[in-house]
């Protein structure tokens, strides 16, 4: 269980709530009337969790929308996204080559968090010394030791970024506190926070008479989660709709052996795209192309890697995923790779590719309700937040367990950050 919600010692400076997300991040402070998220990225309260290091020494390190724009515009450099997903994995302690030096991934995460903090301090006009950090229920599935290391790593990074006091709250619990501001009567809710890297659930008792209490442990009946989120749905769509156009699952000339699948899984996964730029990858793929039955498709993949545009594929896939929330069919435009190349993607295709993901979500919801000692019929409402909650099959998976519960949609990208800010005010005063 994360840090207690009881009041902690308050040093000089202001407290904040920080939702460092796989896809987007927010930071909030308590305002005169209500908690508020700060607009830290070109007037937006959401900051894409992306970092760009230019290869030219004249370039500064960029984060958020500026990082994405530099990458898409073809500025020479190194682009990284979904950094949160490496917490709890050995990769967090590894180094990557940037310019003429090797930089630890934890230093890159610190750069991102530190930049958010500096922007927030400039906007709020005072130092931010204390933070309630959001965290998933499980950074890592089925490994308590790795989970503890991930939280400790994130706390250490926050301190290195300049926070003197760091505590944590589960992200779905934080979202529940934001939802609670709008409930008019006592409600037993399942909060479903479907983020970019994890899906997290909490069963919480909420109500007008409860929201002012300093201690809320008894109201949090159970929390559960799984390392599955929007980026997993991106990967499924990429593998189903885009990778075949680059040679995925095509055959070699000898026998019925498929071309190696490793590069396609790396390309379809936000956190591993940069592996394709290792100097050993292209020579190996060129050897595969010589023995492939459809060398033209392998040539597309090779050209993409030579252009270092792997993340551009996932940016377009993510847009396609969002489009399929409302449409039955869309296209994934890759004209920048080859004129006229725009693979089709359909909702039935997408839903078929994500059937196993939906089953994992259903099982996690069932386990969380059971851990609360309740039957599904006891839940009054399902509160959805997180960008992944836009996906129809995600909502259907959760609703399948709770067909009678009312459905409430919160601020998909702000509820967790607002709830963490409420918690920061409660803990630090």
TrEMBL record:
Record key words, sorted: ATP-binding, Nucleotide-binding
Positions of transmembrane segments: none
Pfam families reported for this sequence: HSP70
Domain of life: Bacteria
Gene3D superfamilies recorded: 3.30.420.40, Actin, Chain A, domain 4 (3.90.640.10)
Protein name per Swiss-Prot or TrEMBL: Hsp70 family protein
Source species of the chain: Rhodoplanes tepidamans (Rhodoplanes cryptolactis)
